[in-house]
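Help needed: design a sequence for this.
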């Protein structure tokens, strides 16, 4: 098999097997036989083993001596991994994930805004101004433009907090935030630059409590948008 063919086979096994695990078609603790997978996907043993290594890195599979490879318990899964998230949303809206993401954001992002108000530099402020301007420019454009502009604003605010551990924590939810934005903007016409502007104003004036309150209001509005989008999506699916 050529290098290109081998990589393609490996990716196909990763995608198919990962989606089957995440969607519950293959359940936790179920054994994964390499020979059976090789036959199922018509690929080499090497391609199967490489795919299993990728899935192991995402926490989806594990291995034990004498037993071999098996599907790992859900609590071991890297639930914020971009591929895992994509598989979760491949054929349905994962409402539980959206609800849990809202709870995490409500805990993390107001604290980020408070720290940014205390620690932001002039460069951080200029970058935030640019990010908000991009959000305003994206109004009325395709949903993808607004999604990207919104993510840039939140990522820029995160950098302005100057906390490496918080950066890693919040960066981990960025893939989830992207899916949330795509879902909401594909279902609703939602425009929230006013709330973002309130956060930016508090950060500019270095008023940490006001920034924290403004971000909490922004996230609460985001959660309300998700709830409304779920309702609309459900009504559309029932037609």
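Sure. Designed sequence:
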């Amino acid at each position: 098999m050529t290098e290109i063919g081998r990589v393609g086979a490996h990716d196909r096994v990763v995608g198919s097997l990962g989606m089957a695990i995440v969607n519950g078609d293959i359940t936790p603790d179920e054994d994964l036989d390499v020979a059976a997978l090789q036959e199922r996907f018509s690929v080499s043993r090497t391609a199967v083993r490489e795919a299993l290594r990728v899935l192991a890195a995402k926490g989806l599979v594990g291995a034990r001596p004498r037993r071999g490879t098996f599907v790992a318990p859900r609590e071991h899964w890297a639930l914020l991994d971009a591929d895992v998230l994509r598989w979760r949303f491949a054929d349905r809206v994962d409402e539980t994930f959206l609800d849990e993401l809202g709870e995490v954001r409500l805990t993390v992002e107001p604290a980020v805004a408070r720290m940014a108000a205390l620690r932001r530099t002039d460069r951080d402020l200029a970058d935030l101004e640019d990010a908000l301007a991009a959000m305003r420019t994206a109004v009325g454009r395709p949903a993808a433009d607004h999604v990207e502009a919104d993510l840039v604003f939140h990522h820029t605010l995160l950098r302005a907090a100057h906390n490496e551990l918080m950066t890693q924590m919040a960066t981990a939810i960025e893939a989830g935030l992207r899916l949330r934005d795509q879902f909401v903007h594909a279902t609703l016409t939602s425009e929230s630059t006013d709330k973002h502007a309130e956060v930016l104003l508090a950060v500019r004036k270095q008023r940490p409590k006001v920034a924290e309150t403004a971000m909490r209001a922004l996230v609460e509005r985001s959660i309300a948008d998700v709830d409304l989008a779920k309702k609309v999506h459900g009504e559309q699916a029932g037609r």
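The longest strand covers residues 61-64.
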